[in-house]
């Protein structure tokens, strides 16, 4: 319980700071809306072809906009050397990492929940019959983005080109999670029921989340202290 | 048992050796002034002691444990170059956060006590970004001391402090020494440091040039140490 209490204290601190400054959510939301708008010009919203790539469009928006939030996750700790204050506290690297993950996860989900209805309107899509399943896919896919993004945010925090390095490093790593999320979302947005052949993508998403959460928690201490 | 035991510690930045075979012990209740020119390796050594960095070689034992053990870190207070508090949080929220991270029994009470001790109780709900430099520094001092650490690691603690913050810090350091806590502080402000110090270590280009008790000569002539053991 103590482990989670300290992780939640860090998450609460990040969310409180974000609510006051709104520096990443505003930027991320604006960016997401601009991409949604540009894609709606680039592809004919009502066409069958667009419906077939709807899941891909949606997850590209989530991944691009999410990077803006993840980039700031550890970078915000550089102000006043707060990262040193956190690392020298009794909170372990794993607690610090999970606290950051929880806060990033909430922020990403908020951005996605705003983007989804706008996507439905822009792309002339029907609200999925199994909306709850789409939400489950969002939760699983977003956790994958969050875990990988938060770990690499810690890795790149002291680099001068971190804004460039983070997306360059995380997008290749995210391919399995994005593939799973895109496949499932496309089926659900098209209003089709999920069949047995889609189960593999669910398993892939869950497996990705579990494996990379364990790996990240195990590696973060080395990333932060060396 | 020594409060801090440093044995054969090396640290490299690339090929450059920032610390070369540093070894010394510090007894409980001592106040060590860690002296040296800019770039001598003082901050590097303090960062290793604080668990913020790892040495390439050598062994460090702090309060009987490893610097990265949670139990050890709970007993260390660190005041580095940065103030280590959040701009978007209030003074109270900052202290409550660190009281929680240090697993204090009553984080709210601890935060309020330290706001009072550092004279910040009237601005407890003010955001740090609106604070003056002196108020930020006092808050940083409160953050470093709030868990009653047995070992205090202070990197240039008097630099850029205003009069009130210096007074608060000196009072706290004197109380800490009277309570038998151990202090290691790196500093260029020899007079302030040597008044408090019981021991002195001088680092010169990554090597330990001198280690011993603070003597009357040092107090009367703070430049004495550099002339005798430092580089010309």
Provide a brief overview of the structure.
The complex is a heterodimer of chains A (226) and B (232). With 226 residues, chain A is mainly alpha-helical.
List the helices and strands and how they pair.
The complex is a heterodimer of chains A (226) and B (232).
Chain A: H1 2-21, H2 23-42, H3 48-52, H4 54-75, H5 82-87, H6 93-122, H7 131-155, H8 162-189, H9 199-225
Chain B: E1 4-13, E2 16-26, E3 31-35, H1 42-49, E4 57-62, H2 70-73, E5 76-79, H3 91-101, H4 107-117, H5 133-145, E6 151-155, H6 163-178, E7 182-186, H7 190-196, E8 199-204, E9 207-213, H8 216-220, H9 224-229
Parallel strand pairs in B: 3-7, 3-8, 5-6, 6-7
Antiparallel strand pairs in B: 1-2, 1-4, 8-9
Helix pairs in contact in B: 3-4, 5-6
Give an overview of the whole structure:
The complex is a heterodimer of chains A (226) and B (232). By secondary structure, chain A is an all-alpha fold. Chain A is built from nine helices and no strands. The two termini of chain A are 27 Å apart. The mean pLDDT of chain A is 92. Chain B is α/β, with parallel strands linked by helices and 232 residues long. Chain B has a single domain (27-51, 64-229), classed as Rossmann fold, CATH 3.40.50. In chain B, the strands form two sheets. A six-stranded mixed beta sheet of chain B has the order 5-6-7-3-8-9, sandwiched between helices. A three-stranded antiparallel beta sheet of chain B has the order 2-1-4, with helices on one face. Chain B is globular. The mean pLDDT of chain B is 91. Chains A and B meet through helix 1 and helix 5 of A and helix 2 and helix 3 of B.
